[in-house]
Amino acid sequence: MRRDVFQAIADPTRREIINLIAYRQMNLNAVADNFDISRPAVSKHIKILTECGLLVIKQQGRERYCHADLKQLKQVTDWAEQYRQFWTQKLDALDVFLTNEQNTDNQKNNKL
């Protein structure tokens, strides 16, 4: 089953796994050593990340190594961008409004 990338980043443990593997390839045991949860629990998180396309697992001899494939995170960036644009426009409009109010107040004070 292919999972949604948003499911992957919803969990703090999975975000930390992505963080660890983003900078260097690690075997499954090395990943698990970074957490105070059971190895089967870490394996479940890794499975979800793999199903989302954020991790790729490659067999090298007897070891299985994870490396990050973060292209899927572009979906998150694209989704968040629409809200960044929305709030940028709203905050810019608020800035114009407050500047106008301040100028109006200054003009009133100068007339007194």
Q: Can you walk me through this structure?
A:
This protein has 112 residues and is an alpha+beta fold. Helices cover 65% and strands 12% of the residues. Helix 2 (12-23) packs across helix 4 (39-51). The model has no long low-confidence stretch (mean pLDDT 91). It has 5 helices and 3 strands. Strands 1-3-2 form a 3-stranded antiparallel beta sheet. The protein folds into 2 domains: 5-72, Arc Repressor Mutant, subunit A; 73-111.
Task: Give the topology, please.
Blueprint: H1 5-9, H2 12-23, E1 26-27, H3 28-32, H4 39-51, E2 55-60, E3 63-68, H5 74-111
Antiparallel strand pairs: 1-3, 2-3
Domain HTH arsR-type: 1-88
GO molecular function, one term: DNA-binding transcription factor activity
Protein name: Winged helix-turn-helix transcriptional regulator
For the record, give the distance between the C-alpha atoms at the N and C termini, rounded to a whole number.
72 Å
CATH topology category name of the largest domain? Arc Repressor Mutant, subunit A
Low-confidence stretches: none
Helix content: 55-70%
Query: Strand percentage, roughly?
Result: 5-15%
SSE order: HHEHHEEH
Mean pLDDT: 91
Strand order of the largest sheet: 1-3-2
Basic shape: elongated
How many beta-strand runs? 3
User: Class by helix and strand content?
Assistant: alpha+beta
- Number of helical elements: 5
Specify Rg, calculated over alpha carbons.
Answer: 24 Å
Question: Sheet bearing the most strands, described?
Answer: 3 strands, antiparallel
Q: Can you tell me the CATH architecture of the largest domain?
A: Orthogonal Bundle
CATH hierarchy class name of the largest domain? Mainly Alpha
Q: Determine the oligomeric state from the structure.
A: single chain
Number of domain modules: 2
What is the CATH superfamily of the largest domain? Winged helix-like DNA-binding domain superfamily/Winged helix DNA-binding domain
GO molecular function, one term: DNA-binding transcription factor activity
Pfam families: HTH_5
Protein name: Winged helix-turn-helix transcriptional regulator
InterPro entries: ArsR-like_HTH, HTH_ArsR_DNA-bd_dom, WH-like_DNA-bd_sf, WH_DNA-bd_sf
